[in-house]
Amino acid sequence: MKALIYAALIAGxxxxxxxxxxxxxxxxPLTRAEVRADLIRVEQAGYxxxxxxxxxxxxIQAAEARVQAQDVTAPGSSGVGxxxxxxxxxxxxxxxxxxxxxxxxx
Length: 106
Fold this sequence. Notes:
By secondary structure, the protein is an all-alpha fold.
């Protein structure tokens, strides 16, 4: 009987780190698509990463603040989870004045 108790105790101790590791997997690193979407949103808020910017930290922080303000004031964003409003992207990208991607030549 003691062997069974010890075996159950050891199994429980060994299984605990596995369960905690599984919970951390949902907060993994961002995907390339998520980073690109974030860059597009910041560019739409007025930040130009290709320009020589002498006020770099202030400009990007101001653009991120504008994006944050748009997220808070956007209709349908209650800040309480749930399903997002239906939308999708299809077709060719719209012209934004740039003739090529910022990744051109890399």
